[in-house]
Every structure is written in C-alpha cells, then in structure tokens.
Amino acid sequence: MGACTSRRRHHVSELMDDEIAAIREVWVKAKNEDVGKKILQTLIEKRPKFAEYFGIHSESLDMKVLVQVKEFQLQAHRIQNFLDTAVGSLGFCPISSVYDMAHRIGQIHFYRGVNFGAENWLVFKKVTVDQVTMPKELLSEIEKRRETEIRDLEKSLERGSLTGSIREPNHLNADLLTDLTNSYSGGNYLAKQGWNKLMTVIVREMKKGFLEEAMRNCREEDNLPIFSTANV
C-alpha cells in the first residue's frame, strides 16, 4: 500500500477496532460476489435517475440489458474499487485519508455536473450498507418475494381484479427490506454499525467536496473583472 496522506487530523466519528474488523470481514465476502454491480443495479432499480447520474446510456432499463452495457460495468467497477481502497486503508492509514478520497470524488462530481441531491445520497448510503452487509441468503429471499409480488400484481391486472393501490415494482425492495431485516440484530450488529458509520462520513465528505467546489467557483465568478465597452 502506498503512503497515506491526509490534510485533516480529527474527525468526530472514529471507527473502533472491532468495527474495522467486522467491516473487513463482510467486505471480503461482498467483493468476491461483485458487490459493485449489485449496488449499482439496486440503485437504478430504486431510482432510474441513477443511470443518468453515472453516465449509463441505454435504450432500455431492463437489467438483463443494462448489465451488459460498457458504462454500467465501468461504473460498477469504480464503485467497488473505491470501497475496496477505503476498506483496505482502515487501520493502516488515518481514517481522515478515506474522507479525503471521498471529498475529492465530490469535487469531481461538481465538474462532471453530477448532483445526486439530498434524498438520493441517502439512497446511495442505504443501498451500499445493505448490499455489503446483508447475508446472501436473505438477499436471495428478498428477490424471490419481490418477483412473486410482481407476478401476483401482473395476474391481478390481467384479471381486472386488483383491489387497493398499485405499488411500483421499484418500491417493493424497500418494503421487503423493512419486513425481513432488522438493521442492528444478531451477529451482524458490528458490521452494520461499522459500515453505517463509514458510509455516513463518506457521503458527508462527498457532499462537502461538491458544495465547497461549487462555492469556490461562485466566488471566482464574482471576482471576475467587469469590462466596460462604453469607451470602445
């Protein structure tokens, strides 16, 4: 690993040693299962706007098609690579070095015109934590129940016997996650807690990097000289 660099020395939310160990343990399993693709896929399923944010251009948002798109594969790799670098530095570099990386990504987002917005940042955080820490068996069960609900909904629509409100498929995952999981239960407590703390500060620093760069550019524009053409 290269030298650790960080301009900042202190942060409020420091990770404990047992939390770092739990973060690493679940990450090893998650990255071996291409968690970057799972994170990006879930983000787009929940909020199709994420495809635009990540520069993924496709005529169809069908996941079987989308996962084959070059831009999808590239962005999934970038997500996983960033998280892998962040996790790999924990315990070896000051935690603020991770925050500096996130801050820099926020600055890059500004120059690329990528502004998630407050609500989508929360979605990004929750999806990442869930996909990394949730047991594979539970994720499979959620997907099965989601597919069953969609099939039942389609059959009801065909029969014209649907009663009550119609929920979009994109909302089903959130409902099932609420039904099937308790974020802080059992042996997964430390992993959930650690990843939640880590992603909280990562998202915070990404947002801060974006906003600070936006403000800096506004100040530079305000300081530009005003040329008069009156005497030209």
UniProtKB/TrEMBL annotation:
<dbReference type="InterPro" id="IPR012292">
    <property type="entry name" value="Globin/Proto"/>
</dbReference>
<dbReference type="GO" id="GO:0020037">
    <property type="term" value="F:heme binding"/>
</dbReference>
<dbReference type="InterPro" id="IPR044399">
    <property type="entry name" value="Mb-like_M"/>
</dbReference>
<protein>
    <recommendedName>
        <fullName>Globin family profile domain-containing protein</fullName>
    </recommendedName>
</protein>
<dbReference type="GO" id="GO:0019825">
    <property type="term" value="F:oxygen binding"/>
</dbReference>
<dbReference type="InterPro" id="IPR009050">
    <property type="entry name" value="Globin-like_sf"/>
</dbReference>
